[in-house]
Amino acid sequence: MENTALYIANLRLYVGGEIHGRWFTLPVSPHAVFDYLRLDGSDEYGEEWIILDAENPYGLPIHEYSDISKLNHYVLQLDELDETVLKNLSSILSNGSETLEEILENSGDNYHFTYESSMEDVAREFIESCGGVEEAIGADQIEYYFDFEKLGRDMKLNGCYFEGNDGHLIEYIG
């Protein structure tokens, strides 16, 4: 699993033009962050932090004021996801079918990975798994999905059909 890391800085110093911060790999103790940034509530250091950058390989919802404890919780739950779900998590999240919370709640079980690289291959696999075209889409839908023009062109190219003098097609069956 790749690491999720945050560059967290002291907000009061940042607003004052000074960056006092560092990279923290999640999960991280919020107390460790507060101690490093000297968030003691004083006039000099204040008590707030800001996330200025993130290494976010899984597309977690990270913004400037994200809750560190919540992000820690996400990262710990990511360890429980299947490797394929984890590898594709940013794509899954950008699809918008589910939130991160929903994916973590159901362990990514709402996704089936086809291992195909084109929708044509997915369609072929679907037809085969259903036992043929009629079983998959029904006889009444075949004309809608089937490319008769392409089949006709291929049949002609195979040399079995040719055009007669009257414009009609003739099939050679000999």
Secondary structure blueprint with pairings:
Blueprint: E1 5-10, H1 11-15, E2 21-25, H2 30-37, E3 49-55, H3 68-78, H4 83-87, H5 89-95, H6 100-105, H7 119-130, H8 133-137, H9 142-145, H10 148-157, E4 161-163, E5 169-171
Antiparallel strand pairs: 1-2, 1-3, 4-5
Describe the structure.
- The protein has helices spanning 11-15, 30-37, 68-78, 83-87, 89-95, 100-105, 119-130, 133-137, 142-145, 148-157; strands at residues 5-10, 21-25, 49-55, 161-163, 169-171.
- It is α+β, with helices and mostly antiparallel strands.
- The chain folds into 2 domains: 5-79, Ubiquitin-like (UB roll), CATH 3.10.20.480; 119-171, no CATH class.
- The strands form 2 sheets. A 3-stranded antiparallel β-sheet has the order 2-1-3. It has a two-stranded antiparallel ribbon with strand order 4-5.
- Strand 4 (161-163) and strand 5 (169-171) form a beta hairpin.
- The radius of gyration is 29 Å and the shape is elongated.
- The termini are far apart.
